[in-house]
Amino acid sequence: MWGLPHGFAAPCHHARQAPLSFRDLISGSLGAILAAEAVQFDGVAKAFAGVPVLDGVNLSFPAGLTTAVVGESGSGKTTLLQLINGVLQPDAGQVRVFGEAVPRQAVEPFRRRIGYAVQGAGLFPHLTNRQNVVLLAQLEGWTQDAIEARYAELLEEMDLPEEVSRRYPHQLSGGQQQRVGLCRALMLKPGLLLLDEPFSAVDPITRVGIYERFEFVQRHEGVSTVLVTHDMREAVHLGDRLVILRAGQVVRSGTTDEVVNAPGDSYVEQLVNQQL
Amino acid sequence: MTARIGLALALLLAVSAGADVGHAAEPIRIASKNSNESYLLSEIAAQLLESKGFAVERRFGLGGTLIAFDALVAGEIDLYMEYTGTLSQAILKLGHDASREAMNQRLKGDGLRLLGPFGFNNTYAIAVRREQAQALGLARIGDLAGQPALKLVFSHEFLEREDGWPGLKRAYGLPFGATGIEHALAYQAIAEGSLDVTDAYSTDGELLRYDLVLLEDDRRFFPRYLAAPLVRVDVGAQVIEVLETLGGSLDDAAAQALNAAVVVDGLSFADVAAGFLAERGVAAESAAGAGGDDLWRSLAANTAQHLKLTLTALGAAVAVGLLLSLLIFRRAVAARLVVYLCGLLQTVPSIALLALMIPLFGIGAAPAVVALFLYSLLPVVRNTVTALTTIDPTLLRVADAMGLSRRQQIRHVYLPLSMPSVLAGIRTAAVINIGTATLAAFIGAGGLGDPIVTGLALNDVSFILQGAVPAALLAIATELAFEGVERVAVPGHLRAR
Prior knowledge:
Chain A is built from ten helices and ten strands. Chain A is α/β, with parallel strands linked by helices and 276 residues long. In chain A, helix 4 runs parallel beside helix 6.
């Protein structure tokens, strides 16, 4: 495991069977030294078929906080997420997660330490909600007791009734599905959580409920979060920090208060005024 | 992965080869074509050899001249009954009425020999209903030229052979078009009046049964068709010596009477053959009396053999089809190509595909299993590839981002989500297989096609039903079984409606 002993990799008493390797120890201590940043972009560029999507991006995502990345479709925000979990590799520059460069090969163990939730929840329809949530823990070889304990903990944190366990995703409301999706993303106690427009498909009233739940869980789990959204209102509501992306470039970043109070850019000002 | 496919194919071949072993006592393998006279003559030869102490294996009902001849050349059988005209024209291309010496000269290279003929001439003949012949004044083949309203329907083989319809049409200057029909069905059809003129064999017992008359071949177009044992020389001098005693034993009238005993009086081949041999002082045992017990026993044996053919082929097709689909579905071009090739296999008519298997696998269960396997591939591969390539991309993005390995994605995402479609494909393949496997009897593979082929040769519906009814029931049972499997394997909301 990399990351902070009590930060990124959150308390890990259901440890994986394998003992810590030398590499784990090294990267763990490196992680501890560099732990101030959950994710770091240094001069990252990415183009598709010669068209630049991200162009020389420098960004840091502080550990333990929620950073909301706001942009229109085509601004490069999905590409930014995919560079963090290694689905894409940068053409230039480097992306580091808790100090460690995103691996190019054997990327699965790396990804399992990053939770991922997506618009519409993306639950597997052939699995019950419980099976969806615990799938990764089973593949990781957790004991039945450890799985049970963690699952119960997440249901409670997400305020989901036990009845959802045996049901299939299509039998739940959109809001409930979204919360099951978050449970799945958090099951392995990841240090980092990536959210790809996760709340867009949920109706506005339900959404406010989920926001509150999420903020509570995010603090309780101490998980660093990167939230990608086109919705400035959502970004302001959930984000400790904001990053405004436009046409592949960062036009503004800072704490939410800083950005809202001093947009410093006409595009950002427009966003702030329109959506608040 | 490629190694695994190789392994699967090797297994398939091993299984199909295994279905064909067991000539421990090296019995003499006697075949017949699927005409009742061919059955009868082969049964006579079989009983005669058994009475002399030889072990005999009967492989009756092969689906046509070329299948039987190819099987003989390939050493899959030791002998069957052939007609001189067929051998000289259709097989050896020696033209009209070549001498037996000339034919044996040509056969020597393949290690074959045509023995002395039984004596009767079962030539092609043109048959019409007696009352129609009288009404229209038809006596000779040439008389047909003045009757353009008549409906001419011939057996497929006759329609194609140079010594059949094409030559006849030229020789008599007949202006008609003609269509094809399975020979065994032609008698029923002409009796019912759905056709007027058809080809017959001059010693057919059905001519008596349906009150048909033969038109005189006044221009002597048809060659002589003398039936004789066609054997592999390596069957041994003793066997050949025994078979030669059958030479000259049957004239036209005697042959027609024996045929009629089977097709008109409903006696079994075994009984008629035994009676014939008894008259010649040979005490042969009628192997199969047609008791009630026997019906159930043969039904059970045929059904078991049918299931064995079908399940072996289906199992192999599922294993190979799934592996192949998993290997190719990510590559659009390869996937299209494979589905296309499987589709191409499907368009080969089943009897033709079975015949094509003979040079590669001989006759019997092995070629049948391979042909059924090839037929089953398309439904399995097409349904699997389609299902795998149409999975919701969001789910795949999530599976990837969660850190599932390729293998885990296949196991936990691709396969379960494709399951309804894959099961539907397997189900289609199974039902197609059960139907097609009835044709396997034409290449000596047994199964529920056996009574159907016999029934066709005898024009006996009860035999046909002994194969057709259980095959239909099997198909229904298969449908029900798959519904059960689907209920267990697929959650309700994902089932295909």
